[in-house]
Design a protein that fits this description.
The complex is a heterodimer of chains A (105) and B (194). Chain A has 3 helices and 5 strands. Chain A is α/β, with parallel strands linked by helices. Chain A has a single domain, classed as Nucleotidyltransferase, domain 5, CATH 3.30.420.130. In chain A, a hairpin with a 5-residue loop joins strand 2 and strand 3. The two termini of chain A are 15 Å apart. By secondary structure, chain B is of the alpha+beta class. Chain B folds into 3 domains: 91 residues, Arc Repressor Mutant, subunit A, CATH 1.10.10; 37 residues; 42 residues, no CATH class. In chain B, the strands form 4 sheets. Chain B has a 3-stranded mixed beta sheet with strand order 2-4-3. In chain B, strands 7-6-8 form a 3-stranded antiparallel beta sheet, with no helix packed on it. A 3-stranded antiparallel beta sheet of chain B has the order 10-9-11. The termini of chain B are far apart. Classes of the chains: A alpha/beta (105), B alpha+beta (194). At the A-B interface, helix 2, strand 5 and helix 3 of A face strand 7 of B. Strand 5 of chain A pairs antiparallel with strand 7 of chain B.
Chain lengths: 105, 194
């Protein structure tokens, strides 16, 4: 199963990005193969519609869960219809490594 | 001037089927136009006629006002009756709605998560696998209590007894439980009895 995590950098030490649509990087983590994929977010500086565009990007990778600090109103209904689970984690000090460790145990 | 935008209606679950087909149509072989029952109308029917709620309770469930719910409900009945009488197919789709995705909060990793698979029950937190989670209700505070609560205080002018002011009840109508006098609003200029 694939999980997307929003991150503000492209390393395991980076922190969880509190925004979904305008985060720095998406990290796609595969819980079965333990594989990691770093996707730079092309919608980072978009004026409008960053959320839906990001959903499209993440959904194209067949992600089933998304971990982020916050989800906008436009995204919630979109993810609901795509049956992607949203996980809201309001802890900006958490690093990507810690989150992956939590997913593994 | 454009009209006021619709308020989105909250739907708890999508219907298990997407419509109804009539059978045994003798007249024209069932080739009539379908009736499009909106999802919000389906939900209104479900709440009022299946769950047997009154319109007020159903309106709260759908996050609309009571008159709006009644309007949606009457439209739903009208459409269902139309389909029954004219032998038309019912298709349940459309409408300005959002699904009430149930949110949960996990106590051990303090995250919030929702359940996209409505039929399946969640057994563990998707992040830390603990079972220590509970339903998260952001609208929990907006009960009648907050509506009737305000910062003002009623005070008894003769003995000084204080009680929180109740919204909608004038202070002068409140009777002090200590000495039986009429109370006044604290901080308001004292009205002298001549």
């Amino acid at each position: 199963m694939k999980v997307a995590i929003t991150s503000n950098g492209n390393s395991l030490e980076s922190k969880l990005d509190q925004r979904f649509g305008r985060c720095g990087y998406f990290i796609i983590y595969d819980t079965e193969t333990q594989g990691l994929e770093f996707l730079p977010n092309p919608n980072k500086d978009v004026q409008e519609g960053a959320g839906p565009a990001s959903v499209q990007l993440v959904a194209s990778r067949n992600v089933q869960k998304i971990i982020s600090g916050e989800f906008g109103i436009k995204i919630k209904s979109l993810l609901d219809s795509l049956k992607i689970q949203m996980i809201v984690l309001k802890q900006p000090e958490k690093s990507i490594k810690e989150i992956i460790d939590m997913l593994n145990n | 001037m454009s009209p006021r935008p619709f308020r989105l209606r909250k739907i708890s679950n999508p219907p298990v089927i997407s419509g109804f087909k009539p059978y045994g149509n003798k007249k024209n072989g069932g080739k009539t136009e379908s009736v499009f029952l909106h999802l919000e109308e389906y939900e209104a029917l479900r709440l009022c006629d299946y769950e047997m709620l009154n319109h007020h309770q159903a309106a709260i469930f759908m996050a609309v006002s009571r008159p709006t719910l009644t309007r949606i409900y009457s439209k739903a009945r009208q459409k269902v009756a139309e389909a029954l009488v004219q032998g038309r197919q019912i298709i349940i789709e459309g409408g300005k709605i959002y699904f009430d995705s149930e949110w949960y909060s996990c106590k051990s990793c303090s995250c919030y998560f929702n359940n996209p698979e409505k039929q399946e029950e969640i057994k563990e937190c998707p992040l830390c696998r603990s079972s220590n989670f509970m339903n998260y209700e952001p609208d929990h505070e907006e009960t009648e209590d907050t509506l009737t609560r305000c910062m003002d205080i009623c005070i008894c002018p003769s003995c000084g007894f204080e009680t929180p002011h109740r919204f909608g009840c004038p202070c002068k109508d409140e009777i002090c439980p200590e000495c039986g006098n009429n109370m006044v609003r604290k901080g308001a200029p004292l009205i002298r009895n001549l």
